[in-house]
Amino acid sequence: MDVVSSLNDKLLNQDFGNRYPEEGSLDRYLQIAAAYAVLENALVVLSDLKADKSYLFSGGIAEVLGLERKKEMKEIDSIWEEEIFSRIHPEDLLAKHSLELQFFHQWKSMPVRERSDHYIKSRIRMCDRSGVYIPVEHRTFYISSVTDGSLWLGLCLYSHPYLSPELLTYEGRIVNSVTGVSLKPDKGRCRSILSVREKELLRLIEQGKLSKEIAEWLHISIYTVNRHRQNILEKLRVKNSLEACRVAKRMGLLE
User: Fold this and answer.
1) pLDDT < 70 positions in the chain
2) How many Å apart are CA 160 and CA 71, to the nearest integer?
3) Taking the model in full, what pTM does it have?
4) Angle CA 78–82–85, to nearest 5
5) Residues in contact with 67: Cβ distance below 8 Å, sequence separation at least 6, in sequence order
6) The pairing of beta strand 171-176 with beta strand 182-183
7) pLDDT at 163 (0 to 100)
8) Rounded Cα gap, residues 134 and 223, in angstroms
């Protein structure tokens, strides 16, 4: 999905350089992920952004959601699990990833020592094995590399909510686990991710104009156009300009 792509490349395009996480630390987080699957019967995805790989652990909720439950860990050659995303209500998936986009930018601006104190908690609708949407609690934790503070791992948990009233709409927040303070999604902040110039350039890309034409139209150099293009891809976490246009439109950034 386009929104998934909007997160994908921003996470993968971090400058890890030749720095590697502390030896043995991945095994420690794999054990934590496995424990969540057992203790909460949660569906757990641990994504390694440096290796572009994920590890899936299936607790009991996997069967409820119509997914295969395996005792052993499943490795996926991607930081995203499309089979899980296909079970999420499209509106909730868009809202979920919009909040994650906001969280990523906020997370990157925090002091490294404070980053582990924050996570996302949301209630989404997911299809069960009968094709009926049920409420599911979703949590996302970002884990820094111990060497330079880059976002190294993403831990996503899908489990039954503690309270289960009928869920009509998506609800999500960024939570400080130390203070208990939570922040609602800031739609205005999401819409301001791109600058006025970047939005203008993206509209021209959507019209099919090439970099040279855009440079002439905006009276700027091709170098500046290409720099704006790269900034757009990084901010929206996409692979190319076509995906950037699709994601920006779905998030209401070009309105």
Assistant:
1) 1-24, 145-149, 163-168, 185-191, 237-238, 250-252
2) 19
3) 0.71
4) 130
5) 43, 58, 83, 84, 87
6) antiparallel
7) 67
8) 49
Confidence (pLDDT) at 25 = 83
Query: Please, is 15 exposed, middle or buried when counting C-beta atoms within 10 Å of its C-beta (0-12, 13-18, 19+)?
Result: exposed
Distance in angstroms (rounded) separating the CA atoms of residues 146 and 140? 19
Residue 81 neighbours by CB distance under 10 Å: 18
Q: Other C-beta atoms within 10 Å of 191: how many?
A: 16
* In contact, 49 and 11? CB cutoff 8 Å: yes
Q: How much is the pLDDT for 4?
A: 47
The helix/strand/coil state of 141 is strand
- How far is Cα 189 from Cα 106, in angstroms, rounded to an integer? 10
Please name the amino acid found at residue 22: E
CB neighbour burial string for 113-141, b if at least 16 within 10 angstroms, e if fewer: eebeebbbbbbbbbbeeeeeebbbbbbbb
The dihedral through the CA atoms of 18, 23, 29, 31 has a sign that is positive
